[in-house]
Every structure is written in structure tokens, then in C-alpha cells.
Give the backbone structure.
Amino acid sequence: MSDDDFMNDSEQEDYDFEYEDEDDDQGGDVDIENKYYNAKQIKLDNPEEAVDEFLGIPALEPEKGEWGFKGLKQAIKLEFKLKRYSDAVEHYQELLTFVKSAVTRNYSEKSINNMLDFIEKNADNEKANASIEKFYSLTLESFQSTNNERLWLKTNIKLARLWFAQRNYRQLESKLKDLHKACQLPDGTDDPNKGTLSLEIYALEIQMYAETRNNKRLKALYQRALRVKSAVPHPKIMGVIRECGGKMHLSEENWIEAQSDFFESFKNYDEAGSLQRIQVLKYLVLTTMLMKSDINPFDSQETKPYKNDARISAMTNLVDAYQRDDIHGYGKILQENGDLLADPFIAENIDEVTRNMRTKAVLKLIAPYTKFTLAFLAKQLKISLAEVQDILGYLIVAGQLRGKIDQQHGIVEVESRVDRERVDAVGDWATAVGSLLSNILNEADGFRGDDNYPSTLGGPQQSMKILNGGVGRMKVGGKIRASGSGRMPGGR
């Protein structure tokens, strides 16, 4: 199949809109046409009667024709809306018998694609979802027998999307393997003529690994998808791939790459007109806070129009409070906007932001004190004693706070800064002296041998005589030690 075939088909892919059937064709029996248009007129007010009218059209044609095909399409859609799923499946099976001779290949493909999209979008209960698999199964059976590879692939991708939505990962993984193989050349490399479809398949597999937290497979597949250059994908597909990449980078605490991917994902979703752009914009704001960045994510030209969007206002206020170190304002926003945590990804990562906020607040509060109570911090931050103790423990382990927690009395003692500096100075002095001695004893040009003077420094038995008069030599307890005029800081 040529590249043009696949590219043109990709451009016709319907992601967000349902296109009306082109039913203005002229020709055919006048009575059949009148019956068809009469049924279309009454379908809004009396859908049940319209279904009967549409179903009566095929019988009026001496052989299977275009009007019968159109009548069955309208009837199936109405039956599905009326929740008559078994009837819809039965008449869809009849519709598929028309595609071999009654209508052109391009028209049948477009009609079947639109039909499957319609059914997928209007499936709002368990029975409807169960019937979708029957629609896909009948389609695959019909078009596999006619060697229509393009529609076979696209229908399989729709079926794979259904299994992903149902979290049926076992069947999905098997289906994805078949789809990858169908989009590859005999040597196993991706077929450049099917690049657009390959990216759709990659996007589904990347989503599956993102959901199942298989970051190793996700990373390899993500990099492979970005290397596909032969495709002109729908921006929604790239939005999906970049969104999953952002989540992957965030889980690895690679904040910069995560921010870049979420921004690219937002732009692609925005171009596609997808509502997912709002959710990804929230992820972008979340990443900005995790980066501890002072840059406002709404300063860019692409995101600025959404700064005052009611759907994003809670995240806007949250990042504002975060960047002002307003711990109470931050907590109040989270408390009043519980729907923010309805997204599992935000709920999972917002705790890290909250801990960063509390950590900064604790360090600011205790700066003037050498002793304070856990209750004091709990009252100031409006959190529990256990949470205060957890933050202090983290600060001590991280080396940001030098002190001891008396759990029994609920008191924290912080080491005096002066004492700490003195201890550190002594340590630095000792290190410097040790380094000096090591250099003196190891560099031959600072000594000359004296066979009459034994040494016990661990090397051969030989005497050492310091040539530089600035440091003397004396023997104490069988070991050579240096003596000089240096003193420890602080007069010690």
C-alpha cells in the first residue's frame, strides 16, 4: 500500500468530531429517496418510527444499492442510541454485506470508520461496551476476507483502544504485537509507509506501560516513537506520547525533561482541541513546583490564555502560594479544592510539593531558636505532632538541621552555631595538619636518610632528618612526631 493511501487516511481520522453523512447524492428511485428523507425528518421526534422507515429501504431496491446502505447506517445509529444493541449488531452485520458491491471502497471505508467512531463515543454503559467488541469482530472478519489491510489495521487499533480502556492488558499486549508486526518490513524495521499508524500503536503501548508502571519498557518505547520521522501524526497522538513521557521523567525526578514533555504535550492537545490539555497543564504546574522554580508556568505565550481559566484557577493559586512561601494559603487551596486530588497522578506527587513547603516553613520558624517544642511547630503550621516530627527527622537526616529530638518531652535542641563552627574549625585544622605530615613524610626531597636513627612509622628501619628548619623532630613513645609553633583556632 502506498504512503499516500495511509497519509490520506490519517488525515480523515476522526478524533473529536462526528461528521454528517454525505447524503445529497442525486439519482435512484424517487420513492426510495422520499422514504429516506422522510425518515430523516421524523427521527428526532419519533426515532422508533424512523428506525422502521430506514429498515424498510433495502427491501425497495431490486439489488443491494447505495440507498439501502444509507438507510441501514441511519437505523443502526438510532438503535444504538435507543439502547437496542442486539438489533444494532444484527443490522450492522447486514450493512457489511453491502460494502463488497453496493458502494465504492473509499465511501464504505469512511462510512464504517465513522460508524465505529459513533458507537465508541456513545457507549455509556456495560452492555454498550460489550456490543462494541461484536462490532469490531464483525468488521475485522469482513475486511480481512476482502484483503482491505488499511481498514483491518484501523479497526484493530480501535479494538486495542477499547481493551486499554477496560484495562484488559493481557489481550491488549497480544494485539499490539500483531499490530507492530503488520506495520513492519520483512527485516523487522518500521515500514515508513505506515509511520502514522505505527505512532498510534506506539501511543497505545506507551499508555499501557505508563499505567502498569513499567518504566523500563516505557522509556525504550518512548525513545523509539520519537525516532519515527516518516509520519505526519494527528497532534492528539503526539500529545499522548509526550504526556506519558512527562510522567515517566517525573517518576525519575528528572524535572527538566518532565517539564519539557508536559509543555509539548499541552501544545499538541491544544492544537487538536482536546480537553486533555487542561489536565496536562495542571501537570506542568505541578512539575514547576517540584522543580522549586520561580518561573511562572503561565508566562509563556501558549499557556497565558489559560491563566484565568476557571478549570485551572486552583493550580494557578497553588503555584502562586508556593512561590510566595505561603504555607497557610497553600494548605487552604488544597483543602478547598479536593477535586485536584481526584487525579491519581496529582494526588501521588503533590505530597512531595507539600513536604517542600513545610520544610521551608520549619527552617524559617526555628532559625532564631536553639530549643523549641514540637507543639510550637504543630500550632504554627497547623499540622499534627507526628507530621512535625517526620519533617524534623527528614531535615536531620538530610543534614539541613543539626539537633536532637526528645520525643518523651516533645522538645528539640539545636546545636549552637558557634560551637558547631568551632568543632568544624578544629576538624579542618586536624585535617590540614594530617595532610602536611603526610606530605612531609612521603616526599623524599624533604628528608635525608640516617641509618643510626630507627623509625617506627611502618616503613623500613631508617632515620629521618628534616632539612627544613621550620619544623623540628622529636621522638616520643617510639614514634616520630612533628613539633612547631602552630595553634588550633580559638587558642587551643
Residues 258 and 389 are 31 Å apart (CA to CA). The longest strand covers residues 472-476.
